[in-house]
Amino acid sequence: MIDALGSKLGALTAASLTDACGRLFRHRMHILGLVSPTPGRVLFGRAATIRYMPYRQDFAEAEKPGFARFFYEAIADASEETVLVLDNPGLPDTSIGGGVKFSRLHNHGVAGLITDGRLRDFAELATYGPAFYCGGEAVQAGSETLMPVAANVPVSLRGTTIFPGDYIYANAVAAIVIPAASIDRVIELASEIEQEDKAFVEAIRAEDPRTILRRGSEER
After folding, report:
1. Sign of torsion over alpha carbons 3, 168, 15, 179
2. Around 189, how many Cα atoms within 13 Å sit in the side-chain half-sphere?
3. How many Å apart are CA 105 and CA 129, to the nearest integer?
4. CA–CA separation, 187 vs 21, rounded Å?
């Protein structure tokens, strides 16, 4: 199923998918400004989330909340179609991980990772199977600045809420967050929107500038 959906989504633009989501929902469903070690690759799958908080020493020493623990809790048994979502709570220039830590995604065949934090080791990440999208590249470790605290809970990336199980579609233009129950309708609407746009292009090609100047235009 995930391959079939990904094929349908791959034929659509990020703009049409965003417009389709906007016709169904009033909340924000896209994330802009993310970068990737492999910007030509598309990331698609279902969200498994890990929530981060600013580092707190007493909690870290008592609970030992390492990434590995929450990674295995988050991915469960659906690794091949999972997009790991990591939030960054107000520390956008801080690294949330790099090539060593995230080699686990490659080892377990996870579809990829998306975060609004920064990642280290772009060159290494580019050699892995999963696709990575993030807020930028970092060089300094952030392990004493951020810590994971919970898996498979709602998170927010740049003002967009993501629930576990949501579909994530990301390319070099934007990331789109689609509620699982609405994925088929969003794809259908996005396709209709692209057909509408093609019709508008044809109408614009045929329009008479004199008529537009005389009567005005309702275009927004």
Report:
1. positive
2. 18
3. 8
4. 9
Determine the 3-state secondary structure of 211 from DSSP.
helix
Give yes or no for residue 7 having a pLDDT over 80.
no
Q: Are 83 and 157 within 8 A, CB to CB?
A: no
CB atoms near residue 194 (< 10 Å): 18
Instruction: Name the residue among 152, 149, 108 with its Cα closest to residue 128.
Output: 108
Which tokens go with 205? Answer: 């090609």
| CATH superfamily assigned to domain 2-191 | Ribonuclease E inhibitor RraA/RraA-like (3.50.30.40)
Question: What is the Cα–Cα distance from 169 to 100, expressed in whole angstroms?
Answer: 25
**pLDDT tens digits for 124-143?**
999 999 999 999 999 888 88
In b/e form, how buried is each residue of 30-45, taking b as 16+ CB within 10 angstroms?
Answer: bbeebebbbeebbbbb
